[in-house]
Amino acid sequence: MSDHIEEQEMEAEALSAIFDTAFTIRSSTQPFQWSIKLVPIDCGDDLEEEESSNHVMVNLVANIPLDYPEVSLPELDIEILKGLSPENRKELLKLAREEASANEGMPAIFAVCEVVREWLADNNVKGLDDASMHAQMMRKAKEAERKEAQAAQQFEAQKTIDEMTEAEQEELAVRKRRAEGTPVTEESFTSWWNKFCAEMEEKKEEETGDIANEEKEKKRIMAERKTGFEIFSEKSGVFNLEKLEAAAEEMENEVGDVDEELFDDDEDLDDLDFDSDEDDDDEEDDSDEEPDI
How far apart are CA 56 and CA 134, in angstroms? Predict the structure, then answer.
């Protein structure tokens, strides 16, 4: 298995996210083969609108070597789908290979797709597949006219910018960025993905830390929490053991020592008459007897 397979699979995932259904994996085993359908105007899933708005379209086919991207360049090919001649295909293929060489050592397929798409957008006209001499002359004249108009437009734009103040130039740049939007490139997508993953990891760590802090706070509260006995004792003061022991000791000191000899003399008990009550009982019994007649 190639050491570069993980990087190649990550590039395929990025291309799939960018081009959606226009990206196709023709071979899912190494060496991979990818295909991207490129049109001047992206109409989403509206095939009817795509067919009417785009007069030219191609498939960019990329065969991925085992040691791509660090060592080898992708093997590229152009499949004409609509409106282009063989000469156009050669021109597009040359542009694609030059862009791939310019990105040697890094993922290059997206950059190649952008170059091809820009060429298609600039040449989105009918009749490019007409190989007649007249058609070729007309195309060359139109291309020269287009380049001349583009150069004049750039000159006027630069002239206008030079006459503007710094604040006006900055405002114009902001409006231009808003109108054009931020182009998605392989580099910007990778940067966004890495930033997104880092933010998610940081958020996860923060949530984990919050949970740990909550557990510590609960343990601290339970450790400092007073028992019912302590709360009741503080309010009433009845069950304060220290006070109770002090009071008992104080009472013991007030009573003093007990003279136990007072209770040890049994001779004094002999002088007591315990028979008087019995004699009284006998007399009462005699008085209750009936007299003889």
Answer: 20
Euclidean distance between CA atoms 75 and 81, whole angstroms = 19
Residue 32 and residue 25 in contact, taking contact as beta carbons nearer than 8 Å: yes
**Phi–psi pair at 104, nearest 5 degrees:** -60, 135
Residue 27 Cα to chain centre, angstroms: 32
pLDDT for the residue 293: 47
The reply to whether the predicted model has a pTM over 0.70 is no
Sequence-distant (6+) residues with CB within 8 A of 37 are 19, 22, 24, 57, 58, 59, 81
Helix (H, G, I), strand (E, B) or coil at 123: coil
* Cα–Cα nearest to 103, from 112, 92, 113, 95: 112
Number of Cβ within 10 Å of residue 192's Cβ equals 12
Report whether 74 contacts 8 (CB < 8 A).
no
User: Nearest Cα to 78, choosing from 63, 93, 99, 94?
Assistant: 93
- The β-bridge relationship of strands 57-63 and 33-38 is antiparallel
**pLDDT of 255 above 80:** no
Helix axes 109-122, 186-224, angle to 10 degrees: 130
Q: What single-letter DSSP state applies at residue 22?
A: G
- 3 state SS of 67: coil
Q: Nearest-CA neighbor of 60 among 103, 116, 129, 18?
A: 116
Query: Which sign, positive or negative, has the C-alpha torsion 264, 268, 269, 270?
Result: positive
pLDDT at site 176:
74
Q: Kindly give, in sequence order, each residue whose CB lies less than 8 Å from that of residue 64, ignoring residues fewer than 6 positions away.
A: 8, 30, 31, 32, 33, 34, 74, 75
- Helix H or strand E segment including 267: helix 267-270
